[in-house]
């Protein structure tokens, strides 16, 4: 059976890489005595699949992974607690559910992420102005490197929503929904293209979105992620 | 006394692998500093991914933190990018546990596992805000101590380190803590700093260079003598009598990022009496002390459950020699209390079919590479170095491995050994080709990687008198092997940079004068010398020249029997005359048996320190010859037909 798990990655541990997090999960599942299926072959490895990589240094309330589980030995509802006890400080499992057979993988299903960016080097007024400009622009053309080649891309179609929130103690707060498909945009690229001169002091993924019957929804139906446990491992 | 984290955090967005600096590992402690507690900062002077797995550092970290009167945190050399960021921001070296400034600690304790980290050690002191020369330090500075295998020749860092620990640290860190606690309580002053150093010098196993006068006679060292009557003429190494008393680490650190040796490690025994003459580790860690099998099983089982690792490494200098090794590995791979398949790895395989059988059994979960270390290409050469592996042993191991499904083997060799002829060097290529040929009978894809390192003579070994081959000579030998293996299908040759071996040679048998060379190289920017992208021989040559020191004299010269060696005032327990006789025996290609299973030949360690081997089995393990006495009768004393080669200039 496949189990989908939502987890948060906050504070110091945000400096670990996507690969690091995968290995952290392999160990945590063993510690929590959740038996995972292994691949066949010369060098078997546990069958875990993650959604879109979170860039090293960014935080998240909405990371997901799917695990092929042999037997759960308990209720899926207890899984987050069992796992959180086995995970390092800063990573916590916040929801889990058994997937229907045939559920599309995270890699294929996720279409967009919501981000909360804390920017320095820019005033709130300037942020409002740049946001209006960006949303009004018919295209935002940038040159970026993909697979070793310079390509010209239009970022505008991938910016689904952009809004300035009241500033916090650490800087100006911008919320953005960015598409992950085809010409997906990373938060760093958004800042460089639309808020030139500003720096990201903090980047937090708050949601990932899939589409079901034309509706946007969370990859896990169970309760939406909330802003909890900030400041762990301080 | 507060955390620097808010100031370090913004820098981490700008550097490679920022997870090196965050701590947060499973097993980390967050100690409560207090005026009555001695604060140790344990520093591994290389990158985090190299230093984190170091067992010695982790053992001391736990032992110190278990004490009421001490706290210990860890630090690793910041990579070049963070080093520059810290200096630009005016920030010091910090601990990864609570991100506290190095200067908030009472002691900076360096782990010196190899010579090429010396410049990093100086850099860490400097980044900590501590004057690199011990003579320039004042009461406001922490004490700088160092231990590890390289401390068995402490002289190159004698002007930079306040006190060295020679040997095993489990017991002595407590004794040092007690002295430092009194120093801290009484208030640090100029006079008390001198007093505390004097007091440390009276602890067994602690060497305080400032308590000794060094005299030279021309280029030669004449004497190193204590300045006070209560300071020992020779500092003898510390050795714990029974490993069973020290089941550490109990909570091995589980790193969040990928590191070398990323698995659980359980030390099954310490010391080795195989007697390989090139091997400093084997000479300085005697006698053999096995951990009780029951304790090994418990540490493996609990360690795997606690860490979530799927692999455990049973560590020692030759793990297949552990009494009852088969049972321990069987019980581990079949342990139903573990969640998912588990592998065992043996970091140092003995070369015989028995060992391969064990390896096949333990790698059911994940078949990792097999590495053997015959060390030399001909039987004559292996007798010289006392690595008594017959060709039958090696071929038996190789055929066993290929027949059980392995496709690729790795063989380790040394070149530049005493009495080595070109025929001996080329024997490496022949041996590797023969292994491939035998492998082809089992699998068409059989291949062998021969990894060749230049031999660097080390202190406290029978080869300490031998003049190291020049980098040019090592290069020539590697080229011989390149030519010889170019047409050999299935043989891949890898080699260690002979220029790095040269620098290792400068430091490994250097005296106090070499310290200024290390300082010059560091000041010229020569850190991370173990990393090929940072290593620069030119800096070392320039520094030697600037100090008026001759590379040939330090590295390539054969020493004579009566020469005062820079480490003669450091005792590893081995009689100097035993080492000299063993050196002479090696020149006659005489082997020497393993004394854990045969009568004592009095190397000096057990008799001198009143300790003995702790070995569960009175007989050697089955399989192969291995100088174990089985099937080896007559072999160790077989004389080479050629006359002994004269190497002493």
What's the short story on this structure?
With 234 residues, chain A is of the alpha+beta class. Helix content of chain A is 20%, strand content 40%. Chain A binds chain B through residues 12-13, 15-17, 19-20, 23-24, 26-31, 33-36, 38, 42-44, 46, 56-57, 86, 88-90, 201, 233-234, and chain B through 5, 10, 12-13, 18-19, 21-26, 254, 256-258, 262, 305-310, 338-341, 365-367.
Helix content of chain B: 25-40%
Distance between the termini of chain B: 58 Å
Largest interface: A-B, 33 and 30 residues
The count of DSSP E runs of length 2 or more, i.e. the number of strands of chain B, is 19
> Multimeric state of these chains?
heterodimer
| Main beta-sheet annotation of chain A | 10 strands, mixed
Overall mean pLDDT of chain B: 92
Secondary structure tally, helices of chain A: 5
Tell me the span between the first and last alpha carbons of chain A: 37 Å
Computed CA radius of gyration of chain A, to the nearest angstrom: 19 Å
Secondary-structure-derived class of chain A: alpha+beta
Q: What's the arrangement of strands in the largest beta sheet of chain B?
A: 2-1-3-4-5-6
Features:
heterodimer, A: 234 residues, alpha+beta, two-stranded antiparallel sheet, 5 helices, elongated, disordered C terminus, B: 649 residues, alpha/beta, six-stranded mixed beta sheet, four-stranded parallel beta sheet, 21 helices
């Amino acid at each position: 059976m496949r189990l989908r798990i939502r987890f948060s990655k906050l504070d110091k541990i945000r400096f670990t890489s996507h690969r690091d997090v995968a290995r952290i999960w392999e160990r945590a599942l063993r510690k929590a005595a959740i038996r995972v299926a292994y691949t066949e072959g010369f060098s078997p490895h546990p069958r875990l699949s993650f959604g879109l990589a979170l860039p090293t240094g960014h935080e998240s309330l909405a990371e997901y992974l799917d695990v092929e589980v042999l037997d759960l030995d308990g209720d899926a509802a207890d899984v987050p607690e069992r796992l959180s006890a086995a995970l390092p400080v800063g990573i916590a499992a916040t929801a889990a559910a058994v997937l229907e057979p045939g559920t599309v993988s995270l890699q294929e299903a996720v279409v967009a992420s919501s981000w909360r960016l804390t920017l320095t080097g820019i005033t709130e007024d300037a942020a409002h102005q740049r946001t209006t400009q960006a949303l009004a622009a018919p295209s935002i053309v940038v040159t970026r490197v993909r697979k070793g080649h310079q390509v010209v891309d239009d970022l505008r179609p991938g910016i689904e929503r952009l809004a300035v929130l009241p500033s916090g103690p650490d800087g100006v707060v911008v919320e953005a929904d960015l598409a992950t498909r085809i010409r997906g945009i990373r938060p760093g690229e958004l800042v460089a293209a639309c808020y030139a001169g500003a720096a990201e002091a903090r980047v937090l993924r708050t949601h990932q979105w899939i589409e079901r019957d034309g509706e946007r929804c969370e990859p896990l139906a169970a309760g939406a992620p909330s802003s909890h446990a900030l400041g762990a491992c301080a | 006394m507060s955390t620097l984290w808010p100031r370090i955090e913004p820098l981490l967005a700008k550097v490679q692998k920022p997870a090196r600096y965050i701590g947060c590992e499973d097993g980390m402690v967050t100690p409560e500093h207090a005026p009555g507690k001695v604060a140790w900062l344990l520093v591994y002077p290389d990158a985090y991914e190299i230093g984190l797995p170091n067992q010695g550092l982790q053992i001391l970290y736990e032992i110190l933190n278990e004490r009421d009167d001490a706290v210990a945190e860890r630090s690793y050399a910041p990579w070049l990018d963070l080093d520059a960021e810290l200096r630009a921001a005016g920030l010091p070296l910090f601990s990864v546990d609570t991100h506290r400034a190095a200067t908030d600690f009472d002691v900076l304790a360096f782990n010196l596992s190899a010579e090429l980290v010396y410049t990093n050690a100086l850099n860490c002191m400097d980044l900590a805000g501590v004057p690199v020369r011990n003579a320039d330090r004042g009461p406001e500075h922490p004490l700088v101590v160092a231990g590890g295998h390289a401390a068995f020749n402490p002289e190159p860092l004698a002007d930079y380190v306040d006190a060295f620990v020679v040997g095993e640290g489990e017991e002595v860190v407590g004794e040092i803590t007690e002295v430092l606690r009194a120093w801290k309580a009484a208030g640090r002053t100029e006079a008390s700093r001198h007093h505390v150093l004097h007091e440390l010098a009276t602890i067994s196993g602690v060497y305080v260079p400032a308590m000794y006068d060094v005299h030279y006679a021309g280029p030669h060292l004449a004497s190193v003598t204590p300045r006070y009557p209560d300071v020992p003429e020779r500092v003898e190494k510390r050795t714990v009598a029974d490993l069973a008393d020290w089941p550490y680490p109990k909570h091995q650190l589980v790193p969040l990022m990928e590191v070398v040796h990323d698995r659980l490690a359980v030390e099954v025994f310490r010391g080795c009496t195989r007697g390989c003459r090139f091997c400093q580790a084997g000479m300085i860690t005697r006698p053999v002390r096995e951990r009780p099998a029951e304790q090994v099983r418990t540490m493996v089982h609990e360690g795997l459950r606690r860490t979530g690792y799927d692999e455990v490494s049973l560590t020692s200098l030759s793990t297949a020699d552990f009494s009852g090794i088969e049972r321990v590995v069987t019980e581990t791979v079949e342990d139903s209390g573990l969640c998912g398949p588990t592998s065992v790895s043996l970091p140092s395989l003995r070369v015989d079919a028995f060992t391969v059988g064990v390896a096949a059994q333990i790698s059911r979960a994940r078949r990792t590479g097999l590495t053997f270390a015959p060390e030399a290409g001909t039987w004559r050469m292996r007798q010289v170095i006392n690595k008594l592996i017959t060709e039958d042993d090696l071929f038996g191991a190789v055929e066993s491995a290929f027949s059980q499904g392995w496709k690729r083997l790795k063989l380790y060799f040394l070149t530049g050994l005493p009495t080595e002829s070109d025929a001996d060097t080329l024997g490496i290529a022949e041996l590797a080709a023969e292994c491939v040929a035998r492998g082809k009978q089992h699998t068409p894809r059989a291949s062998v990687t021969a990894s060749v390192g230049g031999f660097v003579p080390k202190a406290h070994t029978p080869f300490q008198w031998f003049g190291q081959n020049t980098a040019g000579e090592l290069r020539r030998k590697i080229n011989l092997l390149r030519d010889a293996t170019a047409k050999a299908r299935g043989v891949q040759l890898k080699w260690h940079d002979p220029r790095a071996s040269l620098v290792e040679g400068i430091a490994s048998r250097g005296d106090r004068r070499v310290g200024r060379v290390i300082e010059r190289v560091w000041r010229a920017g020569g850190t991370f010398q173990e990393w090929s992208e940072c290593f620069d021989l030119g800096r070392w040559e320039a520094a030697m020249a600037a100090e008026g020191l001759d590379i040939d004299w330090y590295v390539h010269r054969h020493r004579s029997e009566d020469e005062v060696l820079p480490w003669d005032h450091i005792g590893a327990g081995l009689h100097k005359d035993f080492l000299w006789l063993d050196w002479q025996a090696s020149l006659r290609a005489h082997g020497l048996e393993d004394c854990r299973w045969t009568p004592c030949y009095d190397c000096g360690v057990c008799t001198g320190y009143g300790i003995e081997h702790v070995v569960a089995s009175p007989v050697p393990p089955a399989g192969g010859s291995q100088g174990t006495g089985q099937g080896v009768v007559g072999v160790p004393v077989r004389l080479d037909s050629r006359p002994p080669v004269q190497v002493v200039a």
